[in-house]
Write a structure and sequence with these properties.
Layout lengths: L1 H11 L2 H14 L8 H24 L3 H24 L9 H12 L3 H13 L12 H26 L6 H9 L2 H15 L3 H29 L1 H5 L2 H30 L3 H12 L6 H8 L5 H32 L1
Helix pairs in contact: 1-15, 2-10, 3-9, 3-10, 4-5, 4-7, 4-12, 5-7, 5-15, 6-13, 6-15, 7-8, 7-14, 9-14, 12-13, 12-15, 13-15
Length: about 325
């Protein structure tokens, strides 16, 4: 519990949540600060291209024959987490479905910092894992975000008066996949796989990424301040979900990893990697993608739940939990 509290305080000081809170504060005091929409659109495109490029490079550098079944498992788990969010959090009193889907998408996406915290601990515990297992993250991250955006589009279409008519699902899916957010991300993935963009990635996209993300968090914070009344009555549900969900998602993914272990010999350490990336929630790829893809969702709800509570739970509770289970199974 002391580790959790320490990480909780640390996450409140993290750049992602810190700049979001900064935007909320300046907007709450009536500041006239405004960031032009054209700059916002460029920043969003830049961030999503970088996310796609990093995922594509990771996929290209992995072993396609060994990674196929674990990657499929990661994809299915990421999609399942979105629907878990929709049908649990989304059914609680006062929770908007779009907020539940955005939260599910963020928890289905992956935190690179949580993954980075896991791997040294696996090494210290002498638990073997596949060298390419870290490359599983885009297979869970991108399907979860795309699923959240597509399902939200279907829901909003039905809600906005078409419920009495037959709603064609494929045109909605097609429109979602052609949206600027998803297109930029998938373009980055394709370029990362089919070309060798490492030089431009390392010299341009990677150095500027966190600075642009900070600006986006200020924009989202200012928007969140305008919608704070929506959150006050239901904040406790997001807090409860953010504490329980990482553990549930982790066990779901660990079970999938064990099935793959029985079929292919996928290591127990690899199953732990799969469990922890499922337990994690994105503070990098998720916010800009969901802000562009589900603009009606309240960022203070899904980012606050993920960064303030979900990440400490994943690092302080889920990592030692699943490493401990792996050590017991190895005896």
């Amino acid at each position: 519990m002391s580790d959790f509290i320490e990480l909780f305080i640390k996450q409140l000081q993290s750049p992602t949540l810190g700049f979001l809170i900064g935007g909320i504060v300046v907007a709450s005091f009536g500041s006239q600060l405004a960031i032009p929409d054209s700059i916002y659109r460029f920043i969003t495109f830049f961030l999503l291209m970088k996310i796609g490029l990093s995922a594509g490079i990771a996929i290209r550098n992995s072993n396609p024959t060994e990674i196929f079944l674990p990657a499929l498992g990661a994809m299915l788990v990421g999609i399942a987490i979105v629907f878990i969010g929709q049908y649990t959090l989304g059914r609680l009193p006062g929770i908007k479905t779009t907020d539940a889907l955005a939260t599910g998408g963020l928890f289905g996406a992956v935190s690179g910092s949580t993954l980075a915290a896991l791997l040294p601990q696996l090494d210290s515990a002498n638990i073997p894992y596949e060298a390419w297992s870290a490359a599983l993250y885009p297979f869970m991250d991108i399907p979860a975000l795309v699923t959240a955006i597509v399902v939200a589009s279907v829901y909003l279409t039905k809600k906005n008066g078409e419920a009495s008519e037959k709603v064609e699902i494929w045109p909605i899916i097609k429109e979602s996949l052609q949206s600027s957010a998803v297109t930029a991300m998938l373009l980055g993935v394709a370029l990362g796989i089919l070309t060798k963009p490492e030089s431009v990635y390392e010299s341009f996209f990677n150095p500027l990424f966190r600075g642009f993300l900070a600006i986006l968090m200020i924009i989202m914070g200012m928007e969140a301040a305008q919608r704070m009344n929506e959150l006050r009555k239901v904040a406790q549900w997001f807090a409860i979900y953010a504490f329980i969900a990482p553990i549930v998602h982790g066990f779901l993914a660990f079970g999938v990893g064990l099935i793959i272990h029985k079929i292919t010999g996928f290591s127990i350490g690899g199953a732990v990697v799969l469990a922890v990336i499922a337990a994690s929630s994105s503070d990098i790829s998720g916010p800009p993608t969901l802000r562009a893809g589900i603009p009606s969702a309240n960022p203070s709800a899904y980012i606050g739940a993920s960064t303030a509570i979900g990440t400490p739970v994943a690092i302080a509770i889920c990592i030692p939990l699943f490493i401990g289970i792996a050590e017991m199974m190895a005896r």
